[in-house]
Write a structure and sequence with these properties.
By secondary structure, the protein is α/β, with parallel strands linked by helices. About 30% of the residues lie in helices and about 25% in strands. The protein has a five-stranded mixed beta sheet, sandwiched between helices. A two-stranded antiparallel ribbon has the order 1-2. The longest helix has 17 residues. The protein is globular and about 40 Å long. The two termini are about 25 Å apart. The model has no long low-confidence stretch (mean pLDDT about 95).
Length: about 150
């Protein structure tokens, strides 16, 4: 891996793209499907795309494990989306629907909702449970990734 590039999974076709770090903020597109690599919206994390986003991509990821029946999960969703709009392309924001993906939720040992997981380099770097206001969520992210 070149220190000046980052490998990223395309949210549309899951192709791994090597993007120069200096060009991450320039709206890069997938070399295969030509769709944007960043949409400003969280991406659904599924059993079918987890390997691409969490093991083959070098980009730090933030996972929001949630369920549709969970009130705090629904109240946190706009906070997660706002953070995504502010922090892409530095991070990939992933939503894990624990009802639709129970096996994946079990792999992540989700015991309460919402659960937020900071992920980098193929492993978990931090975890917190509960809905957070945007300022506290941004602080948690900075601390989790050693930016604070």
């Amino acid at each position: 891996m070149d220190a000046d590039t980052t490998q990223l999974a395309c949210p549309h076709c899951l192709t791994i793209n090597r993007v120069p770090d200096a060009r991450l903020g320039e709206g890069p597109r997938c070399g295969r499907c030509h769709q944007p690599l960043f949409t400003g919206q969280p991406v659904a994390l599924t059993a079918g795309n987890a390997e691409a986003f969490l093991l083959r991509s070098e980009q730090p990821a933030v996972i929001d494990a949630w369920a549709g029946w969970c009130g705090p999960c629904r109240s946190f969703a706009p906070v997660f989306a706002a953070a995504c709009q502010r922090l892409e392309p530095q991070f990939r924001f992933l939503k894990l629907d624990t009802e639709a993906e129970p096996q994946l939720a079990a792999q992540f040992r989700i015991q309460s909702l919402p659960t937020l997981i900071a992920w980098q380099g193929g492993h978990e770097v931090a975890r917190i449970s509960g809905a957070l206001p945007l300022p506290q969520f941004m602080q948690w992210l900075a601390k989790a990734y050693g930016l604070a």
